[in-house]
Amino acid sequence: MADVTDLIDSEVFQAFATYATIVLLKMMLMSPLTGYCRMTRKAFSNPEDVAMHAKGDDAKKYLRTDATVERVRRCHLNDLENIVPFLGIGLLYALSGPELDTALFHFRIFVGSRICHTFSYLVPLPQPCRAVSWMAGMGATFSMAYRLLSTGLRL
Amino acid sequence: MADVTDLIDSEVFQAFATYATIVLLKMMLMSPLTGYCRMTRKAFSNPEDVAMHAKGDDAKKYLRTDATVERVRRCHLNDLENIVPFLGIGLLYALSGPELDTALFHFRIFVGSRICHTFSYLVPLPQPCRAVSWMAGMGATFSMAYRLLSTGLRL
Amino acid sequence: MADVTDLIDSEVFQAFATYATIVLLKMMLMSPLTGYCRMTRKAFSNPEDVAMHAKGDDAKKYLRTDATVERVRRCHLNDLENIVPFLGIGLLYALSGPELDTALFHFRIFVGSRICHTFSYLVPLPQPCRAVSWMAGMGATFSMAYRLLSTGLRL
Questions:
Q1: What is the average pLDDT value for chain A, to the nearest integer?
Q2: Considering only CA atoms, which of A114, A76, C153, A87 is closest in space to residue B92?
Q3: Do B127 and A2 touch (CB under 8 A)?
């Protein structure tokens, strides 16, 4: 187990582990938030979910879409679309031996940008708040990908 | 290549590899299932897909949504939303040197919960079958994230 | 840091890093493409996005779905559904010590298939172009999963 211990002892890797876990936890909170919005707004997509709240004809009217629920779902999907590249590229980047300061800079920008993005999407704040926070996160991931491809391309 | 071999020889990592592969294979089966439902129910979303089944005006009526297809798609999306955090957090957790028994406990709960979730969603079983299986998976991932952040926080 | 350097020096791992980064960059380009289509076709899903283009009653009519925007979004979601298993299974496969040639064969097929898939989806090319490219990618991932489970199953 010596190697695994050494790997996890690398400060860059440990920083990646911390920031990746934080941003994944943030994303996971979108699921209960969707559930909460569905409950309070009574907007469901499955008949079996409505059964707990109403019966018969009354139930059918709760099988509908709601603007707030859809907003939370779009925010969640956008998280997925951005966090998956960060996880993949960030992990490979952390293993490619970057400077600790540079790596922390990238991880912090990304995680900060996703928190701002969620906040901007759910309040909602006027544009370009959401667009700018989305771009900051994309930029951090692109920058890590550039470093990866420029230092060790193996086609 | 000595280090890579040692890494993959760690029993916890090997267990993670097995369970992650199983749960990803389960998720991948949702794609052909969606395709199968689209074929049998003749509910497509792209004009070029319909062309294999019908022509002209007949084709347009197949560009529609179908309750069963949408159910499979929601199940697939829920898989994505839950399996991505498991992959990220589970990998970092497996590398943080947990006890084998504890790690196996987490991986088994998660994979079992996702199989129950899919089953509950597609049959469909009455609630709270789906809700409980979804929560068990979330709980396993949260517990691994807690262990990660409590043992090696590096901000 | 010796181990991390050794790990990243393994040719198979470096090949995985390169192909995973390429396919993730391809996926990330779907986000700005969606944005571009929303702008040119004036089809938005959030009121705050429309505010930059129109005011009052004029704004409401831009809160709509558009066939091209939905096509790009479906392509993006299909990417996510296929690239997530590739990242997870591919990473574990790269660490399981396969032959370099075999590994390269799998990675190239997968990345090639996803590029063909995007091209087939967005042009769009007649079926079965998209179906075949999707299947090639699934096949490559399944093949890596089979190798993983057949060499080191640890339940």
A1: 86
A2: A87
A3: no
| Spatial separation of the C-alpha atoms in residues C16 and A98, rounded to whole Å | 18
The pair of three-digit structure tokens given for residue A66, joined into one six-digit string = 């709601």
Can you give the pTM of this predicted structure? 0.89
**Residues of chain C scoring pLDDT < 50:** 1-5
Mutate to test the interface with C, among B3, B13, B16, B78 (most CBs of C within 10 A): B3
Q: What percent of chain C has pLDDT over 90?
A: 48
Average pLDDT over residues A26-33: 92
- Could you write out the DSSP letters of every residue in B94-123? HTT---HHHHHHHHHHHHHHHHHHHHHHHT
Tell me which fold the domain C2-31+67-151 belongs to. Four Helix Bundle (Hemerythrin (Met), subunit A) (1.20.120)
Which among C3, C21, C31 has CB closest to A81? C31
Q: A2-28+67-150, what's its fold? A: Four Helix Bundle (Hemerythrin (Met), subunit A) (1.20.120)
Question: Which CATH architecture group holds B2-24+67-150?
Answer: Up-down Bundle (1.20)
**Which residue is associated with the tokens 């019908």?**
B54
Residues of chain B found within 8 Å of residue C152, distances taken between Cβ atoms: 8, 14, 17-18
Within an 8 Å CB–CB cutoff, is residue A31 touching chain B? yes
Give ipTM to 2 decimals.
0.86
> What amino acid occupies position B79?
D
Q: Which of B24, A31, B73 is nearest to C83 (CA)?
A: B24
Q: Where are the domains of chain B?
A: 2-24+67-150
**Across all residues in chain B, what is the average pLDDT?**
86
More confident residue, B144 or A51: B144
